[in-house]
């Protein structure tokens, strides 16, 4: 059974102020082309389809286009989708009954009634049946009422109990789709900036990988860098695109998992995705950075750090003449490092007005005039701080 494992598409996401619609469409078109080439038996999308719980019309158009292109491949490839923490279950499950007619199976919310169970999709290959269990993102509060008091106390017990009530036969081949924060004995996966607060919650939302170890493959979403947790068959496939500068060195790819007969080791392949615009850092003197621009790299999304001691005139404008997608521009030199250094022991904290005067002097090379002083004083007053 050949599986394409995807997650965290975050359709509709912006990179700083840049709209990524074209980039996302290009990545999804590449995935469709890879599906045509490799002919997987199934495509899994493990949560965070959309970046926002209320996706824009554009975001829907991009995702619809992707599903439609996948559905047009013959023979048809089933697509299994679960909701992530960014997705809105009601919105995501819209038209799901219709989608099933096209072999697109979607599970947007965890069971909430005693008679409800996880969506299970059974597919066949030469070795027999493979059961796919769709476990959408859940919080303990979504499922606690299904169990006796005191059973579900955290994310881990929630996932364990929800899986436990399915009566899964582990002598068969089983695949789980899940969108949670899995850890290995408290050891966290490697995070990055685009996940936002995922890794900083302090262990309360983690689920130990031992809870899902018995599955033959665990297709995960939530963490944006591709990596395994505890064992190669428990895996985050990562985002199809770099969604933050911290992902500069990520190798974005489709994870292809090939499941053999029961007990056979799973074969994993990363099929690289080539973005239409790279995301990378540029650091150095302005003239060096300008000199490094080429026809190939001038459209990359770049995060620039200038190290010039003498700050150049209008650096942003100069950079924009050669690079068209500048995400951010920072200066790292003696002056900015001094500004960042912590105050020496015993030095008094500046009052807001004093601090702003010093800042203004530093930035403009001259003191504030009375008009500027007036503006700042009124802002500080509104804000409720001490003015002078
Ligand atoms: Mn995500």
Features:
24% strand; Purple Acid Phosphatase, chain A, domain 2; six-stranded mixed beta sheet; alpha/beta; 2 domains; 388 residues; binds manganese (II) ion; globular
Q: What topology emerges from the helices and strands here?
A:
Blueprint: E1 2-6, E2 14-15, E3 18-19, H1 21-38, E4 42-46, H2 57-71, E5 79-82, H3 89-92, H4 96-100, E6 104-107, E7 119-125, E8 128-135, H5 140-143, H6 155-164, E9 173-179, E10 181-183, E11 206-208, E12 217-221, E13 227-229, E14 231-236, E15 253-258, E16 267-272, E17 279-284, H7 286-291, E18 301-306, H8 315-322, E19 325-331, H9 334-340, H10 352-364, H11 370-383
Parallel strand pairs: 1-4, 4-5, 5-6, 8-9, 9-12, 10-11, 12-14, 17-18, 18-19
Antiparallel strand pairs: 1-15, 2-3, 7-8, 13-14, 15-16
């Amino acid at each position: 059974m050949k599986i394409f494992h995807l997650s965290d598409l975050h359709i509709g996401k912006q990179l700083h102020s840049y709209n990524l619609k074209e980039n996302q469409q290009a990545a999804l078109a590449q995935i469709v082309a890879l599906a045509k080439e490799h002919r997987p038996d199934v495509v899994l999308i493990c949560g965070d389809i959309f970046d926002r719980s209320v996706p824009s019309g554009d975001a829907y158009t991009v995702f619809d286009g992707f599903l439609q292109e996948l559905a047009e491949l013959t023979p048809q490839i089933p697509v299994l989708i679960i909701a992530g923490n960014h997705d809105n279950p009601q919105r995501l499950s819209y038209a799901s009954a219709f989608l099933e007619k096209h072999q697109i199976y979607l599970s947007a919310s965890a069971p909430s009634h005693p008679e409800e169970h996880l969506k299970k999709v059974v597919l066949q290959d030469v070795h027999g049946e493979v059961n796919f269990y769709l476990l959408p993102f859940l919080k303990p509060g979504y499922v606690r009422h299904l169990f006796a008091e005191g059973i579900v106390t955290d994310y881990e017990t929630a996932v364990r109990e929800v899986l436990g009530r399915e009566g899964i036969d582990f002598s068969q081949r089983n695949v789980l789709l899940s969108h949670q924060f899995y850890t290995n004995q408290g050891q966290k996966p490697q995070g990055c900036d685009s996940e936002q607060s995922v890794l900083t919650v302090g262990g309360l939302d983690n689920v130990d990988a031992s809870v899902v170890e018995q599955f033959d493959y665990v297709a995960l979403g939530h963490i944006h860098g591709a990596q395994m947790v505890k064992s190669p068959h428990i895996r985050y496939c990562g985002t199809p695109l770099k969604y933050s500068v911290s992902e500069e060195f990520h190798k974005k790819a489709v994870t292809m998992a090939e499941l053999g007969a029961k007990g056979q080791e799973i074969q994993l392949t990363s099929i690289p995705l080539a973005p239409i615009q790279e995301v990378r850092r540029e650091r150095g003197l302005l003239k060096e950075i300008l000199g490094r621009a080429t026809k190939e790299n001038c459209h990359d999304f770049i995060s620039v750090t200038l190290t010039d001691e003498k700050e150049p005139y209008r650096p942003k404008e100069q950079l924009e003449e050669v690079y068209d997608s500048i995400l951010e521009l920072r200066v790292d030199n003696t002056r900015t490092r001094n500004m960042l250094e912590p105050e020496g022991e015993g030095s008094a904290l500046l009052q807001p007005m004093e601090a702003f005067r010093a800042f203004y002097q530093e930035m403009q090379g001259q003191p504030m005039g009375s008009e500027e002083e007036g503006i700042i004083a009124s802002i500080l007053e509104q804000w409720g701080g001490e003015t002078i």
